[in-house]
What we know:
Blueprint: H1 3-13, H2 22-31, H3 37-41, H4 48-58, H5 63-68, H6 71-79, H7 81-84, H8 86-111
Helix pairs in contact: 1-2, 4-8
Amino acid sequence: MDNQKVEMFLMTKxxxxxxxxxxxxxxxxxxxxxxxWMAIQTLEFHDPTTILIVSLLAGSLGIxxxxxxxxxxxxxxLLTCGGLGVWAIVDWFxxxxxTREKNLTKLQQVxx
Length: 112
C-alpha cells in the first residue's frame, strides 16, 4: 500500500489504537495489497474517550461493554449492578485499553 495513504490513516485514526501498536500497524499496512484500502477506510472505530465517558455515566449498567462488543461482560455488569459498583470503578481504568484492543482486532480482521 502507498506510504502516503498509510501515514494519512495513522494521523487521522491513531488515537483509536495504543501508541506502541502504531509501528506494527504501519508495517503491516505497507505490506497489504492496494485493493484492501477501501475496506480499511470503511471501518468504524470506537473512540476510547467517548466510551470512557459512557462508562463514567452508565458503567454500572454495562452499557460501555455492550458498546465495544463485550456482550457477556455487559450482561454480567447489568445483572450485578456493576459488581455492586466495584466492577464499574475498575472499568473506568480499563475501558479505554479494552476499546483500543477491540479496534485493533477489527483492523487486523481486514489486514490479515
